[in-house]
């Protein structure tokens, strides 16, 4: 009876208005404000919801006893989230934020092209009113960045290749990808520790350098040239770089690229936070010198006879045919020109066994910012290999033995690949491995010194031959001079 009376006295409109008023009064006096972040905003997925979920999953202070666990496709780890009505307290720059996860049943299915889930999920963020400005300006951005970082860390890195040539897949992508699981890291890489630290610091500066690159007006990219004999760890270094920064790798096979425009298309389809690799650049293609390039767009054609042939083979579509019509200019534009700036945070790595064969234009700063020489195994690198392959620290080995290694390692000129092969073969018997390696190093050093002696002897022989021929020539010249003199004196007398 009272309910009916109440309903008649207070019609729904009046009740709604009074509830609204009460809410307003409550909000007026409350020192908190609330934000709802729903999973689906209209019909679009709310990116902020996913970011908050991921960000909170990394927080250790979850109070609830029931957590939801997920493992995304291509992910290497589990993430957990809050269940219904669980609460979590987070602090940012000394400011407290209360997060609550809510899950409610969706009332009625409204018409949409995309079926919506039955549950409506979201987060409620409660903060003090005085912190509202700071939270909205920086906290949410911080959450987005952090979530992206976690996502990248959890996800498998990918190795892309353009081995399909210029053909595209169903989504118009010229790259094919496979999960990248190379175990090489800077810890396993045997090289001079000082050089290694220098490179790691350079990479870190690059990854954190968005503001710096913006301030200086430079494209956010960096080039490294790795050079040295085969088996010194150039490819392993690239894998270590990718694992260190959490970047994807694009392994660009230049022999599969026919034209400069194809090269540009490939570059446009690369993502940021990636390493673009061209291995063995001196062998992959004969790049024509830029100075000879013709005036066509970006110097597509050279004036060399081969290029005239190429120009002759342009199809009615305007595309050039034939292998290797990609030029050095095209490659330079790819790494340094306007096109290099589409996308950001990218590293270019070129490797070669013969740096002297490369065009100086490719080596200048800005294109290849750092030239890293991967040398034969040094003593410091050997210690790293001992630790990684045999589990030996420096102090665990006999001092005499280590001295022998130190004296012979530089003369032997063995690559880390050669040395690791000896260590792998004998890894069950560590002491045998060490002794066998010492033997191998000594015999290689002896061989090298014999070659040096032979070289010196040959050089001396050649020098001797040169001097004898020079002496003979001098004698001949002297004879000629003497003859000339006698002739001239005879002529004078006759005169
Ligand atoms: N510096 C190194 N540290 C650790 N392992 C190395 C190193 N260098 C080579 N290796 C080992 O030798 C193998 C071959 O090395 P890698 O392919 O990196 O050499 P590379 O310099 O790229 O040779 P190439 O010039 O022939 O391509 C690797 O599997 C790795 O295990
Ligand atoms: Mg290699």
From TrEMBL:
Region (Disordered) spans which residues?
A: 463-495
Cofactor names: Mg(2+)
Biological process annotations from GO: response to stress
Pfam families assigned to the protein according to its UniProt record, in alphabetical order: AAA, AAA_assoc, AAA_lid_At3g28540
- CDD domains assigned: RecA-like_BCS1
- A Gene Ontology molecular function term of the record: ATP hydrolysis activity
Tell me where in this chain the AAA+ ATPase domain is found: 220-378
- State the reactions this protein catalyses: ATP + H2O = ADP + phosphate + H(+)
Is Magnesium tagged as a keyword? yes
Keyword annotations from UniProtKB, A to Z? Magnesium, Signal
Listed InterPro entries: AAA+_ATPase, AAA_N_dom, At3g28540-like_C, ATPase_AAA_core, Mitochondrial_chaperone_BCS1, P-loop_NTPase
Identify its protein family: Belongs to the AAA ATPase family. BCS1 subfamily.
PANTHER family, alphabetically?
Answer: BCS1 AAA-TYPE ATPASE
Q: What is this protein called?
A: AAA+ ATPase domain-containing protein
Q: Which organism is it from?
A: Papaver somniferum (Opium poppy)
From the broadest rank down, the organism's phylogenetic lineage runs: Eukaryota, Viridiplantae, Streptophyta, Embryophyta, Tracheophyta
């Amino acid at each position: 009876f009272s309910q009916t009376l109440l309903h008649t006295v207070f019609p729904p409109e009046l009740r709604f208005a009074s509830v609204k008023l009460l809410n307003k009064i409550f909000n007026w006096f409350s020192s908190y404000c609330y934000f709802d972040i729903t999973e689906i905003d209209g019909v679009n997925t709310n990116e902020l919801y996913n970011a908050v979920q991921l960000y909170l999953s990394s927080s250790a202070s979850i109070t609830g006893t029931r957590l939801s666990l997920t493992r995304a496709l291509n992910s290497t780890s589990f993430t957990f989230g809050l269940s219904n009505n669980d609460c979590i307290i987070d602090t940012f720059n000394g400011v407290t934020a209360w997060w609550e996860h809510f899950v409610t049943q969706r009332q009625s299915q409204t018409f949409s092209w995309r079926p919506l889930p039955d549950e409506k999920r979201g987060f409620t963020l409660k903060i003090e009113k005085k912190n509202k400005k700071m939270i909205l300006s920086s906290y949410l951005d911080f959450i987005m960045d952090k979530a992206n970082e976690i996502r990248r860390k959890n996800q498998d890195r990918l190795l892309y290749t353009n081995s399909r040539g210029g053909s595209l897949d169903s989504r118009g992508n010229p790259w094919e990808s496979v999960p990248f699981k190379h175990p090489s890291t800077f810890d396993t890489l045997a090289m001079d520790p000082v050089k290694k630290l220098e490179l790691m610091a350079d990479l870190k500066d690059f990854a954190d350098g968005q503001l710096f690159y913006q301030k200086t007006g430079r494209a956010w990219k960096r080039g490294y040239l790795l050079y040295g004999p085969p088996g010194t760890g150039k490819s392993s270094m690239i894998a270590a770089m990718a694992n260190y920064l959490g970047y994807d790798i694009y392994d660009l096979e230049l022999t599969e690229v026919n034209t400069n425009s194809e090269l540009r298309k490939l570059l446009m389809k690369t993502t940021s936070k990636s390493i673009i690799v061209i291995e063995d650049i001196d062998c992959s293609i004969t790049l024509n010198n830029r100075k000879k390039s013709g005036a066509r767009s970006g110097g597509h054609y050279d004036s060399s006879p081969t290029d005239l042939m190429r120009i002759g083979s342009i199809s009615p579509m305007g595309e050039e045919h034939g292998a290797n019509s990609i030029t050095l200019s095209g490659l330079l534009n790819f790494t340094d020109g306007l096109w290099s700036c589409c996308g950001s945070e990218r590293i270019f790595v070129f490797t070669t066994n013969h740096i002297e064969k490369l065009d100086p234009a490719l080596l200048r700063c800005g294109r290849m910012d750092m030239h890293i020489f991967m040398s034969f195994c040094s003593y410091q690198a050997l210690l790293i290999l001992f630790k990684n392959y045999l589990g030996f620290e420096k102090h665990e080995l006999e001092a005499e033995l280590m001295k022998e290694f130190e004296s012979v390692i530089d003369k032997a000129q063995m690559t880390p690949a050669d040395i690791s092969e000896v260590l792998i073969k004998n890894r069950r018997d560590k002491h045998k491995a060490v002794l066998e390696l010492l033997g191998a190093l000594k015999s290689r050093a002896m061989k090298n010194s014999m070659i040096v002696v032979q070289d010196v002897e040959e050089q001396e022989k050649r020098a001797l031959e040169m001097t004898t021929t020079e002496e003979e020539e001098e004698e001949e010249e002297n004879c000629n001079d003497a003859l000339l003199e006698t002739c001239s004196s005879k002529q004078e007398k006759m005169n």
